[in-house]
Amino acid sequence: MLSDIEIAQAADMKRINEIAATLGIDEEDIEPYGHYKAKLSENLFKKLEDKKDGKLILVTAINPTPAGEGKTTISVGLADAMRKIGKNTVLALREPSLGPVFGMKGGAAGGGYAQVVPMEDINLHFTGDMHAITAANNLLCAMIDNHLQQGNQLQIDQRRIMFKRCMDMNDRALRNILIGLGGRANGIPREDGFNITVASEVMAILCLASDVADLKERLGNILVAYNLSGEPIYAKDLGCTGAMTALLKDALKPNLVQTLENTPAFIHGGPFANIAHGCNSLRATKLALKLGDYTVTEAGFGSDLGAEKFMDIKCRIGGLAPSCVVLVATIKALKYNGGVQKQDLAKENMWALEKGIENLRTHIENMHKFHVPVVVAINRFAADTENEIKFVQDFCADMGVEVSMCEVFAKGGEGGKDLAQKVCETIDLVSGNEFKPVYDTEATIKDKVEKIAKEIYRADGVIFTPQAEKAIKEIESIGFWDLPICVAKTQYSLSDNPNLLGKPKNFKITVRDARLSSGAGFVVIYTGDILTMPGLPKAPAALNIDCDNDGNITGLF
What we know:
- By secondary structure, the protein is α/β, with parallel strands linked by helices.
- The chain is 35% helix and 19% strand.
- It is built from 19 helices and 25 strands.
- Strands 1, 2, 3, 4, 5, 6, 14, 15, 16, 17, 18 and 19 form a twelve-stranded mixed β-sheet that branches. Strands 20-22-23-21 form a four-stranded mixed β-sheet. The chain has a three-stranded antiparallel β-sheet with strand order 7-12-13, with no helix packed on it.
- Helix 7 (129-149) packs across helix 8, helix 9 packs across helix 10 and helix 14 (350-368) packs parallel to helix 15.
- The longest helix is centred in the first third of the chain and has 21 residues, at 129-149.
- The two termini are 13 Å apart.
């Protein structure tokens, strides 16, 4: 059996100008990065301004488990299958982060015969977007510390600097650090720390900005610190937003690649869904909607994280309205949610499946709360029994949703044609789009958090720690109470406790802190023990990756 990278390396890729041509993009509007990837010009957006948007399909999932759900794989396979049944379809995904690539989770290019390529490039440096975001973030940090060193005209309180450095790697040793040591020539000593790049507010800004002007304005609105009088200080007060924009102007352009079956794919932006808003860039999604009759996109982790933020943040800011949600699950993952240990998931266990399927029920109900139709995609494994398959099919029928058994990992687009047909039929059955976010931004911050916790997580309520109460009060006092909410929460459970699987009951969500992302345009709410700088596992994936003397990469999945 071939590995993912072996399948990707054997792909029959077309030159990127040929992929662009299938979408009607002129060569003058592509900026090639080698033969098989390119950025798309600003001029293309202007050319397409008056073109009607296609239909938007969101792929999300149940809560992730060690068994794996294959959300990206289903997204890629669905886009390929849509084209196989004659639908002009474009794929829009996030860029992978180097942290998971060398850590535990892996990349974000799909798997088996449903992948985006060139896989090695996409999972590593790609077109340099991550590095540009890192550089812009750290330029702002350097400007803050230089301002302190050069007399501190703004009277920045060095104990209340809100903006951290970042790097695109899992490195727990950088979570909390001391900087400026070594005497007067080396800066002002203070506590600092690093986020992973995908958790940076600059990443969120890049993914939500509509154009260069909007990008620059959002960068200027980043809250960086408070002064000694307790007044907010923004990035624009330091005078570096022009330089940050210069670093990001090319990164703002969407990246065009292809699937193994040559379906056009935009891979752009990569915020994590457990600590950020978890969606690819708004620009890439909007461009895909102009160029295709259907756009397949994905939101990170389960519907309680990525999909909720897609609906309540990205769609609200970008004026989007999804036509259908594809909810991915596996029978193994449902049994895991029912209490079966990972090593026993290949065995039939109807009791555990019946218990664990309540997790799927909750995610279906959650998506219906946004008034969007749902199709369930079961990523099929050889160990799935006929009894288990029939049970899931009957369950979905009782809930009034279509379900498709998908084999895109093994068969590519051919293994997703049934899903593609059901998605198209579901969209056609809906007379009008009634999409609606789950909360009103005019509510208070605490009321919005309560709404998400009760409606989406099914919590009994929310406990706000004194630190969280203080932070929320301060955010509201400087005029940012009416923003959407971005909850940082474990991906493994509907609750804030990763050990509570299935559909937890009789629990409350504990909010320990809140931070304003005024440039991105949302308030981040921290729950549980969620970290914005992950660490490497005991046996990192980096141990398996190698490069031979001819430059061929091995061990990358």
